[in-house]
Every structure is written in C-alpha cells, then in structure tokens.
Write a structure and sequence with these properties.
By secondary structure, the protein is mainly alpha-helical. The protein is built from 1 helix and no strands.
C-alpha cells in the first residue's frame, strides 16, 4: 500500500510541476 501511495504522490507532483511549467511557458510566449 505504501508503494502505491508513493506512486500516486509522485504522479500528482509531476502533473502539477508540468502544468506549472506549461503555464509559465504560455505566459512567456504570450505576454
């Protein structure tokens, strides 16, 4: 169970970070 929770946490973190970077790129390309 612990491993599953760790996986979910990592996936959520990756999703949030990728989304944040995507938003930053959008703001930079479209000022």
């Amino acid at each position: 169970m612990r491993h599953a929770v760790q996986k979910v946490r990592v996936t959520l973190w990756l999703l949030t970070t990728s989304l944040a970077s995507g938003h930053l790129v959008l703001h930079k390309s479209h000022p």
